[in-house]
Amino acid sequence: MTKRKALRTAFTLLVTLVLFVLLWEGYKWVGQQTDDHWPGTQFGLPVSTDDLTMPHAGDIFNELTDEIRAGRETLPMAVYLAKKAAFTFLEAAIGFSLGVIVGLMLAIFMLRWRFAERGFLPWINVSQTVPLIALAPIVVTWARLQGYPDMVGISLIATYLTFFPVAVSGLRGLQSPDSSDVELMRSYAASWSSTLIKLRLPAARPFLFPAFKLAATLSVVGAIVGEISIGTKTGLGRAILDFAQRYSVWPERLYASVIAASLLGLFVFGLVNAAEWLVIKKGREVLK
Amino acid sequence: MRENSEILEEAVSIRAADKVFNPDSDNEVQALLGIDLDVKEGDFISLIGPSGCGKSTLLRLIADLLTPTEGEVKVFGKTANQARLDQDYGMVFQHSGLFDWRDISANIELPLELKGWSKADRQARSGEMLELVRLEEFKDHYPRQLSGGMQQRVSIARALSFEPRLLLMDEPFGALDEMTREHMQVELLRIWRETGTTVVFVTHSIPEAAFLSSKVVVLSPRPGRIHSEITVDLGDRTDETREDPEFFKATTEVREALRAVEAG
Asked: CA angle, B126 as apex, B124 and B130 as ends, to 5°?
C-alpha cells in the first residue's frame, strides 16, 4: 500500500514537471511569435522570452550532461553539481542536527519553566526577523577568528534557521497532551522526566515532523545563503555565485545549479519523510 | 472472596473537606464545602449530582490530583498524597486516555513500566489483564482500531494492572452509547466481584448509579455538598435486574433525591 503511494507520489511529481516544462516552452513560444506581447494586444509580457532570459528547457537539461572544467579535471556538469551539493548537504545536515537539538532543548526548557516561555518566546521570534544576509558574515567572521573552517560558520547559519520551527512546534507538541493524560501520569506518581519521555515527547511527534520537514529545507537554504554571503571556495553556493557572474553568456548553467539546489532540498525533505514513516507508521494503520 | 471477608478498614475517609478554586481572587469558586465521606473496603459507591456539583473535584481530592483547601482526606489510613505515591488506586477517565503510539499490551503495561517491572513480568500481567477484560485477541492492536467500549475496557485493565485496592472512575462510560454502556456496567460488576477492588464511581446517570452501587452519594451544587447517601442492595446483578421492581425502586429513590437537590 505504501509502495503504491510512493509510486503515485513519484508519478505526480513527474507529471507536474512535464506540465511545468510545457508551460515554460509554451510561454516562450507565444512570446517568440508575438515579440513578447500578449497575443492580439499591445501589452508586453512580464518576462521576455529570449534565450538569455528563458533558455529552452531542453538546453538546461542538456547542460547537465555537458562537460565543465574544474581545476585540472573535466567533469559532466551533473557530477560537478552533485559534488558541490554533497558538500552543501554536509553543512546543511550538521546545521539541521544542531538546530533540532537546540530547538528541542529550548522547547523542553520553556515547557519546564513557564517564565522561560514568557521570556524566551518573543526573542526566538525576533531572532528570525534578523536578515540572514547581514548575520552570515558576522557568524562566519567569529568562526574564522577562532580558526575554524568556513564550514563551521555556515553550519551555524543553517542552525540559526532550523532551530526556530523545531522550538516553536516542539513546545506546542509537548503541551499537546490532554490534562487527563497528564493527570493519569500523576496518578502513577510518575516523575517530570518520565512524563516527558513516556507521554509528552511521543505526543509531540505529529507536531515535530512537519517542523523537521520545514527545518530540513531551511537548512539547505541557510547553507547556500551562508556560502554565498561569505564567498566560500566550494559548495552549491559557490557554483551559483560563479554561474551568476557569467549569466549573460551562459544562462543555462545558472539554471542547472538552481535545479541542483532544489533537488537537494527535495532530497533532504524526502529523508525526513522516510524517518517519519519509520517512526510513526505505528498506530496509523486503522482498520477500514 | 470479599463476601466472606470481614470489612476491616476504611478505604477512603474524608473529614470536613473544603475546596476553593482561585482563592482570594475575583473568580474565586467554592467547589466543595464540608464534605464528610466514608468508603468501606470492598464498597462500590457512586457520586452523582447535577453538573457543577463538584463530583469530579471530590474524586480528584481522593486521587490527590487536587488538594483540599481545608479538611482531611485519608486513603487506607494514609494521607491522599502518600496513597498516590504508593499507588494505592488506579484511575479511569471519561476518555480512555490510551496512548495512540502504544499497542494495547503496551498501554496496559505503562504503569508497570513506570514501576520498573521486568519485561517478562509486564507481559505476564498484561496477559492476565487482557483475559480479565476479555480482549486477549486484541493485544497487538492499536487503540484507534478498537471501539469506544473496548478502549474503555483496556483503560480499566490498565488501571487494575498493578492491583490497586481502590479504583477511581470519572464518568468512564459517559461517552458510550446506551447498549455498550449497559454491557460495560455488567462487565465492571463482574471485574469488581472477581478482584474485590473498592470502587468510587462518578456518573450523572441515575440508572447507572442505582445499578452499580452499594451506596449512592448525591451531591448538591454551588457549593458542592453531600445532600444524601442512599444504600442500594440489588444482590447479584445481571441484565434482568434492570427490569426488577427493586431496581425501579432504587432509581426512583435516587431520582427523588436529585429532584430535591434541584429544587434547592
From this structure: 120
